[in-house]
Amino acid sequence: MDDLEIIPGPIDASVLTLQLNWALITAFVERWRRETHTFHLPQGEMTITLQDVGVMLGLPVDGQPVVGSTNINWHILCGKLLGRTPRPDKLKGARLSMPWLSDVFGVLPDDVTVQQYARAYILEMIGLSIFADKSGDRVHLHWLGLLRDFDIAGSYSWGSATLAWLYRELYRATKPNTKDICGALILVQLWAWSRFPHMTPDILSIQPIDYGVDATAQPLPQGPHGVRYV
């Protein structure tokens, strides 16, 4: 069988804002087996793959590993890449308050460096969805350092990192006395909907979304599978 080439479409952030179905997610988490990294179901063992990440979320699954130094002065990093330095109570270690991001960067003024606001928006999306932690309102500034250069940031395999993070959190969730779970739970939900049609809500739209054209007037690729539920 030929290898399947996964070509993600443009990353449509709206798919990351879907309302989570906690009952559905909890049911699947309870069936996760950390020995095999699979869901044990009546139909057999199943799991979420890199192909699922690329198709459903549109995240790139090829490229450079998502790694970087954590030996950084985080206040200086914020000032340099965001143009703002958070107050001490908004930065706990290396974890930045996401409500602070919303308050400071919620409205785009006329005289602003657009890249700074773009970094703030991407950082908030990361903290709310694909790399969410159990705090619920903070995001690690390690991700901000990777957004220093957007061309380089686009070369990272964000999909691979997202899946690895989710696998780790599913592993932790199976430990006794664990009460919370984090990570890209929207991926668990979209995967369940795609594999078990009787659980799927009404599809809001199956029409292709027009993302416009590139610099050479060629149509941009279609968005991720998950946008049909937005």
TrEMBL record:
One of its GO terms (biological process) is meristem maintenance. It holds the Pfam family PMD. Residues 12-205 form the Aminotransferase-like plant mobile domain. It comes from the Eukaryota. InterPro entries: AminoTfrase-like_pln_mobile, MAIN-like. This is Aminotransferase-like plant mobile domain-containing protein. It comes from Fagus sylvatica.
